[in-house]
Amino acid sequence: MNAVISIVVSWNWYNTQVSWQYVERTTRKGDVDAVNIFAILKKKDGNHVVLVVKQYRPPLGKYTIELPAGLVDNNESPKEAALRELKEETGYVGQFVGSTGQQFLSPGLTNENMVTIFAEVRETQRERQEEGGGRRRGRQSGKATEGGGKGDVS
C-alpha cells in the first residue's frame, strides 16, 4: 500500500473533541515525493505553448488536463525526475530552467509534497514514441496536448 489513512482525535480551543482524517504517503524516497513540470514548448513558428497531458484519475472518475508529473525515484533528484517524466509522458526532451521550493498542495489532508520544475522544449526535441504516449499506467492516456495562450486545450 502506498498510503495510510489515519484519524486523529484531539481537543480544540473550545474543549470539544474533534476528529481529523488524513492520508500519509509511505513511499517517500527523500525530501520530495513528486514533481510537476511547467514546460514551455518553443515552436518553429515562434509561438510558445505550455505542455499539458490528459490523464484518467480514478479518484475523480474522469480525465483531467494537467501538467506532466510523477514521483521521484530512489537516488534521483527532482530535476532528474522531472526531465524523465516529461520525456515519458510527452516524448519531449527538455532543458532545466529552474524550480520552486517544496510545496504542500493539501496540507490539511496529506503530507504529500512536490516541487515544480520549469523547462524549455524545442519542437524538434520530440522523440518518437508509441501511440498514446510513453509508458502506460492504468487508464491514463499519457497523450501530450499543447495548452494555447488563450486557455484553450487542443
TrEMBL record:
What is an annotated GO biological process for this record, any one? Answer: nucleoside phosphate metabolic process
Establish whether keyword Aminoacyl-tRNA synthetase is in the entry.
Answer: no
Where is the sequence biased in composition, kind Basic and acidic residues? 122-134
Sequence intervals crossing the membrane: none
Q: Example GO molecular function term?
A: guanosine-3',5'-bis(diphosphate) 3'-diphosphatase activity
Ranges for domain Nudix hydrolase:
30-154
Which residues lie in Gly residues bias regions?
A: 145-154
PROSITE patterns this protein is in?
A: NUDIX, NUDIX_BOX
Q: Where is this region: Disordered?
A: 122-154
Write the record's keywords in alphabetical order, separated by commas: Hydrolase
Full protein name: Nudix hydrolase domain-containing protein
Recite the lineage of the species.
Eukaryota, Viridiplantae, Chlorophyta, core chlorophytes, Chlorophyceae
